[in-house]
Description:
mainly alpha
Amino acid sequence: LKMLNIMLGLQGHSSKHPCPWCEGSQPWTTPAKLRTLGNIRENQKRYAKSGLDRDHLMKFMNCEFPPLIEGPGKKLILEVFPPMALHLYMGGTNHIKRGLHAKLTEFDKRFRKPKWAEAFKEWCEEKNIVGVQYWNQDLKGPKAIMLLENSKELTEWLPNKALKEFGICLQMLWEVKKSCFGLELVEGWDDRIQEFDKQFDKLGISKINKVHAIVTHVPEFIRMTGEPLGRYSEQAMESVHQDWEKTWKDYERGEIAKSFHE
């Protein structure tokens, strides 16, 4: 998503209008105009002519630079760049997980028993649902799936109704993934997305851009194309990392090694 905004000339995802597919903003409660190559170019030209500094970019839908992508002005960004299945469900899963851990920490402070937040970490570790250090302990794809697969058990394990809502939300995200993030569309996929959206709103945490994309732009894209996200998934390219890792391990040398240059 960060790379997509760069290619489109948009500011980053902490800006007022961060979505690459629409001109909306948090808390994403009202429908927003879909971005096109043309309206990005036009907003960028208006910004350039205004002479205003970067602090005023929100007035121009945060279109800082001309898009690197060529094409007719009427072309929807949603037609050029499909929603990224892998990174959307990973982002949604990690955001809900972080929100749950924060609520468990609050729960422990309220009852002065530091137990549940640490116990949640241990529960994840027992199931090998562990994050990676360079991603701030976030879960990558396979581990995110493991958490979603175990979300029903997690819901039963959590101590009260308010906290169980997080487990239920993960269960619903799992149903969304199975229904339209693969290679086949499952009947009722759109109902599952709506149910996930309603459940997410019960959690009392921010609706990040990736969750907004799941509930808004994934349905738009599927209705536009009639196809599930799996046919456009970035996972094929992501798998190159794993393939390259084998070669890297064979040839990697530290800088102080005599054979480093060779």
